[in-house]
Specification:
75% of the residues lie in helices and 0% in strands. The chain is an all-alpha fold. Among the domains are: 74 residues, no CATH class; 75 residues, Winged helix-like DNA-binding domain superfamily/Winged helix DNA-binding domain (Arc Repressor Mutant, subunit A), CATH 1.10.10.10.
Length: 382
């Protein structure tokens, strides 16, 4: 059917219609797990050249949404400035609001939480419709919940109510999974299970992207999952109980919070200790509290405490050792060289470097060093 529509659209002297069909073809390819990019690239080319503003706006939103679903963060970074500028310059405010919500969810996964908050500010400043407001509510609500800040539940409850009114599976899953996490972070496992059950009741075999995270929550809350199909990685490793492998894969994708959650699910002392360190580095105090409590419940000794006063006072929230590592990164030292300098193992340095990059909110050693210099943390002689 899609192929027929594409063929017919080629015979029409209507760029808007052609662009619209290509948008739909991209959606179909996305659902099939195929490459949707060629369709959307052609969509945008035609729409931009012909001035088909609505079709271009839809194309930008879909591009950012599919990048987010695929954890294609570099692509999202590349498209975002162009997309939001086009929509706002052409007064496509509905699309601009959608873009901001999608972008905020992407930044949420990347743990660029302060950026996500900044992206959503114009959404809350305007009278967006419940549907357009929903994604921004989820992003901001989850950030607040993970940080243990107030008003998270109100945001997520409002988003869930809007999704219930729409009665579409993807929106219900997005909001109810967020509500489940909020309740879990607050220590209400029973309430979290109710939210997950509501999601499961709406899912079918045609919803694999929502089935996988739902199954992970089921496993966390009740020990077993009701997944319909074998999910893709890293979800698959997570569900089969290979939590270290799942964490490694999430780290590779750039999803530090998911990686810490996978380690939490392991239950092994060294993994829980690592999870606490990671949550603390992210500023996810509520999640760190759950991990510490689990260590106590399992009888693990020497449960790590929260950040020391010196760490709280550091401009980037770094511990004394992490600050030492940052200064050595500024000198251009490798991890092996840092290990020799500090008389620790290279693996320990790996963890410290990862924590530094997470706290600084950057993806490279060079960017971390640049931020340190900008803040005046590097001695003049370095």
């Amino acid at each position: 059917m899609i192929e027929r529509a594409l063929a017919m659209s080629e015979t029409l002297d209507d760029p808007g219609a052609r662009s619209d069909v290509l948008n739909t073809a991209a959606f179909a390819a996305f659902l099939r797990g195929e490459d949707w990019r060629p369709y959307l690239e052609e969509t945008l080319r035609i729409a931009l050249e012909s001035g088909a503003h609505a079709e271009a706006g839809r194309g930008y939103v879909n591009t950012l949404a599919y990048c987010s679903a695929d954890f294609a963060f570099a692509e999202s970074d590349r498209w975002w400035p162009e997309a939001i500028a086009y929509c706002e310059d052409n007064d496509l405010m509905t699309f601009a609001t959608c873009l901001r919500g999608v972008r905020a969810l992407t930044l949420l996964d990347e743990c660029r939480w302060d950026e996500a908050i900044s992206v959503t500010e114009p959404v809350f400043a305007n009278n967006a419709s419940p549907l357009n407001l929903l994604t921004s509510q989820v992003a901001l609500g989850l950030i607040r919940a993970r940080r243990g800040e107030p008003a998270a539940t109100e945001l997520l409850t409002a988003a869930a109510a809007a999704a219930d009114g729409i009665a579409e599976t993807n929106w219900i899953a997005l909001t109810r999974l967020a509500c489940a996490e909020d309740r879990w972070l607050d220590g209400d496992d029973t309430g979290a299970r109710r939210e997950i059950d509501r999601v499961r009741a709406t899912l079918t075999l045609t919803d694999p992207d929502d089935d996988a995270p739902t199954a992970v929550w089921e496993r966390r809350l009740q020990g077993t999952s009701r997944a319909f199909t074998e999910p893709q990685e890293p979800w698959a490793a997570w569900l089969r109980g290979d939590c270290q492998e799942a964490a490694t894969r999430w780290d590779t994708l750039g999803c530090a919070y998911h990686a810490a959650l996978a380690l939490y699910d392991s239950g092994r002392e060294e993994h829980l200790r690592d999870a606490v360190t990671r949550f603390d580095a992210l500023g996810a105090s509520a999640a760190a509290g759950r991990a510490r409590q689990r260590m106590k419940d399992l009888g693990h000794r020497a449960v790590p405490t929260g950040a020391r006063p010196s760490t709280r006072e550091h401009p980037l929230g770094l511990t004394r050792r992490e600050n030492e590592v940052l200064l050595l990164l500024c000198e251009g030292l490798t991890n092996d060289e840092i290990a020799v300098k500090l008389v620790v193992s290279p693996r320990t340095v790996d963890h410290h470097v990862s924590a530094v990059l997470t706290k600084v909110g950057v993806g490279s050693r060079g960017a971390a060093a640049a931020q340190a210099r900008q803040l005046g943390l590097v001695p003049a002689t370095t």
